[in-house]
Specification:
Radius of gyration: 23 Å
Number of strands: 2
Order of helices and strands: HHHHHHHHHEEHHHHHHHHHHHHHHH
Distance between the termini: 14 Å
Number of helices: 24
């Protein structure tokens, strides 16, 4: 059984299967501009319009440096994704890459993690869209019922807080408490849901169902609008910056900055969604790598500028809101600009929803094509040439939870599985190099010999930690650092033996370090999701896998 769990696919078999499968009927219309636009649509969504405020609230202006650090980690990962995309240009993203590099069980775990990533990311985006939508209506004098635009948990907690101490309650808590009181009751249960979040998800799912061409055109138009709004915010906001707001730069220290890792990293995930459209690209081996790098560089610059503008316009303590871009202009008295941002954000955030709703069905489709999920998940609509059933399931999986659960829960849930997928992709490049498969890659991660550098880096960090007296105390506070340093030690030894490429190893280490900054609840929820996935795999996928039926085991 152990051998069959690690049965692998070859690059040639993956390409052949994709060519002869039903998904081979999909329309090949995407170029590098479309792919870059899709990446920007996925990355610049709720991250820049919403979660960036939460991160700044905890870390202050120094969060701009956290964006840079996280972007560096993503660059290492994006280079690895780019090489895989040029080698195996099919729709499975990291799932397919893991199937080639590590075997079926790892492929399943990554695929299952990606399903979680895309689903919960879109839930956050949908909830953020709802916040801006109701804010936009309020700007036009239309009052949307509060009990139809929030989640039950947030409203109930706010009501309890107001009951305990009305004087110390915030305006936001009073608003939510009022919504709780106004909500109709069904027996002893209050009827509270975020209706706009569910409805926009349903509308976007319908668009994705209709076709890739329509989705591409909508995405491109929305991205142009989104970039125009961001340029407007930066251009207008610089005139209201007060340098005093940048002091202190890191008011809560390194811990405060790193507490925003989940929110900041959430803001970056999405460049991998480009690879899910590989089978709809005109020239995937050339265009996918370029698009990944282009969109990541563009988005990093914009994130840093936006963070500096927001924290310069108002004190970081005021940014714990779900609509920070509109809020800062209201705070400085430019209500017209706040209104423009609210209206534009409603449209612009929609593009992020579109990007993720495009990506997830194609993961389902690829897993089904390999026999790990039921055949209907890879069924292609005869007219629209889209994975119709997977698209419907994706819509339901996103819309229903977004009606009832709060944003922070989803932000925390997203990161663990995504970090794990990124580590697998970076590690997969080391496998491609070791097996000589990299010779087939049209794009390669630039090779920097890490034979000595990886080990010397470890020695330097350990020496610094011992001399500063923080090494063991930090490991006691965050036990996952033991895993981090153990992994670094193993990689140092293997790098010395096999002259590993430095950049993929840096991708592994930076993603693993960021994982150590996540809370225990993140890990517990991910483990539960993983257990559910493994039960599904062993009850169906393990037996129905096409490799199982063919008896193929490649080491």
């Amino acid at each position: 059984m152990s051998n069959s769990l690690f049965r692998k696919k070859t690059v040639n078999s993956v390409l052949t299967e994709a060519e002869h499968s039903a998904s081979g009927q999909m329309m090949k219309i995407l170029g590098v501009r479309d792919l870059t636009s899709l990446g920007i649509a996925a990355i610049i969504g709720a991250g820049i319009f919403s979660t960036i405020g939460r991160a700044s609230f905890n870390g202050g202006p120094a969060v701009s440096l956290l964006f840079v650090f996280t972007a560096i980690a993503c660059v290492f990962t994006a280079l690895s994704y780019a090489q895989f995309a040029s080698t195996v240009p099919v729709s499975g993203s990291a799932y397919t890459y893991a199937y080639v590099a590590f075997g079926e069980i790892f492929a399943w775990i990554i695929g299952w993690s990606l399903i979680l990533e895309y689903a919960v990311s879109n839930m956050v985006v949908a909830i953020s869209w709802s916040e801006y939508f109701t804010g936009m209506l309020a700007g036009f004098g239309v009052s949307f019922p509060g009990w139809l635009s929030t989640d039950y948990g947030s409203a109930a907690r706010a009501y309890e807080a107001v009951q305990q101490s009305a004087a110390s309650a915030t305006d936001a808590q009073r608003t939510l408490a009022a919504a709780y009181e106004a909500a109709p009751s069904l027996g002893s249960l209050k009827v509270i849901m975020d209706l706009p979040a569910g409805l926009i998800t349903a509308l976007i799912t319908a668009l994705v169902y209709i076709g890739i061409k329509e989705s591409r055109n909508a995405s491109n138009a929305l991205v142009v609008l989104k970039l125009a709004v961001i340029a407007l915010v930066i251009g207008a906001g610089v005139f209201y910056i007060k340098p005093a707001n940048w002091t202190p730069f890191a008011p809560n220290g390194v811990g405060g900055v790193l507490s925003g890792v989940a929110s900041v990293f959430f803001a970056f995930i999405g460049f991998d969604s480009i690879s899910t459209t590989a089978e709809e690209c005109r020239n995937p081996q050339r265009d996918l790598p370029r698009a990944m790098i282009y969109c990541l560089v563009i988005c990093t610059v914009l994130y840093v500028l936006i963070t500096l503008v927001l924290t310069g316009m108002v004190n970081y303590k005021e940014l714990g809101v779900d609509d920070p871009l509109a809020y800062v202009f209201q705070k400085v008295g430019v209500d017209a600009m706040a209104g423009i941002i609210s209206v534009s954000a409603v449209v612009a955030i929609t593009s992020a929803l579109l990007a993720y709703q495009l990506g997830q069905p194609r993961i389902w489709m690829t897993m089904s094509r390999d026999g790990l999920l039921w055949p209907i998940f890879s069924s292609i609509h005869p007219k629209y040439r889209t994975p119709w059933f997977s698209t419907i399931v994706t819509g339901l999986l996103v819309a229903l939870p977004s009606l009832f659960l709060d944003m922070q829960f989803f932000i925390d849930l997203t990161s663990v599985g995504t970090f794990f997928a990124f580590i697998m992709v970076c590690g997969g490049i080391l496998y491609l190099d070791a097996k000589g498969i990299s010779a087939q890659s049209k794009f390669k991660v630039p090779y920097v010999n890490g034979k000595y550098l990886i080990g010397l880096g470890l020695i330097g960090v350990v020496a610094w930690g011992l001399s500063g007296g923080w090494l063991f105390s930090s490991m006691a506070e965050k036990p996952l650092l033991y895993v981090f340093y153990l992994t670094w030690t193993v990689l140092s030894v293997l790098a010395f033996q096999r002259s590993f490429s430095l950049l993929p190893v840096l991708g592994i280490l930076t993603n693993l370090y960021l994982m150590t900054e996540l809370g225990l609840s993140n890990w517990l929820i991910f483990v539960v999701w993983l257990v559910i996935g493994l039960v599904l795999y062993f009850s169906y996928g393990y037996r129905k896998s096409k490799l199982a039926k063919s008896g193929t085991i490649i080491s």
